[in-house]
Fold this sequence. Notes:
By secondary structure, the protein is mostly helical. It contains nine helices and no strands. The N and C termini lie far apart (39 Å). The model has no long low-confidence stretch (mean pLDDT 91).
Amino acid sequence: MVLMQPTARQLTGIKALVHVLALVPLARLVYLVFTDALVEPLQYITHSTGDWTLYFLCIALAVTPLRRLSKWNWVLKLRRMLGLYAFFYGLLHFITFLWFDHFFDVAAMLKDVAKRPFILVGFIAFVLLIPLAATSTNAMVKRLGGKNWLWLHRLVYAIVPLGVLHYWWMKSAKNDLAQPLLFACIVGALLLMRVRWARQKSKAPARASA
């Protein structure tokens, strides 16, 4: 019953649990760095933050299908939080790239972005995430208007495939495509569900009039 329709207090507890779980990867990362447990800390930080960005993007994208299939409408109240954690880990990923790879030399960073396609794709995905994070508050929803806000946040349908493509190109250099292929299948399935539901919705008025 809690999963079907949690009370306000139970939902607050669920949100607190999600916050804690979402910060576990960061806590583990900090622990490994400060205990000198990593052989190549820079590479590990870069890959770990990038991986968790993609994980949270996929989880956020899965919220609507989960709600429709399970009828747990309350899970929609977690989607914004999950999206912000995707941006948070994406920001850490970008800062790692800008700081440790280029020592905050923006010009050198932009040259590197333009020169390497897989970095360019990842950079575009991160830039597209910024307006979504900036408009995540209730005040911004009211300022933009619900319809405009919804259209803006549909950018996630481009961001997630770009993130998968970034990951695919990065892994293809090492001929290690098992995980990128898994991500591609998951994201493809989640997007196809939305396409199917959108087509059903568009056909519903025609059936009703008939």
